[in-house]
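Tutorial handout. Part one gives the primary structure; part two gives the three-dimensional structure as tokens.
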Amino acid sequence: MKNSNPEDKIILAIDGLELKESLSLIKKCPRIKWVKIGLELFSREGPDAIKAFKDINKSIFLDLKFYDIPNTMRSACYQVSRSGVDIISVHASAGSKALSISKQASIEGASDSNLKPPALIGITVLTSFSSLQFQNEFDTKTLIEDYVLRLARLSFDSGLDGCVCSPLEVENLRSNFGSDFQLITPGIRLDKRNNNDQSRVMNAHQAISCGATKLVIGRPITRSSDPNKSFNDICKSIS
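Part two.
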């Protein structure tokens, strides 16, 4: 079935842009509904970045990839859930205790601020890792796709709402988990000759066809000579 609102499936990654630049770009692309605030922008602007995009009614994926001892992760998820963000990322490799209490804390934080609870999403293996690099640097014979499945299962069993994976793992994960489990995929490239620092990539149409819930896309839009056209072209490709 065709998706009548493809813009709901695209999260614009605005890392590398100043806040004013990001807001200016958003004005040029009126169909954009979702933005991803990552470590770079949050480190520079702090919670002001969240407020700026909430003020213009954008949904926010706060991608700070929390990874710490359980109590620290719980406290962090509680605090950011009070800011009104819509998705929060945590590293699934933090373990089941950290994941489960972080999920509960995100519900409590949102409730204490009379807000809808955000989705809590587990990071599996970063898309910058190739299969060979993963095995060599972590001194393991485990295949990257098997490890991603393991962390996705840990996220699912711990009560998280989904996970972040490369588009190459989406089809396998979708066959293992129900449609309510969100699969958010970075590593989307329009041209494989321009992968930048990503290793496990796919185009937008392929990723959605494999079962991705949402696509995180940055440079193919933010560095385009016509960002609005690029965004609309991607929407068309996944409609």
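Part three, for discussion. The two ends are 9 Å apart (CA to CA). The mean pLDDT is 93.
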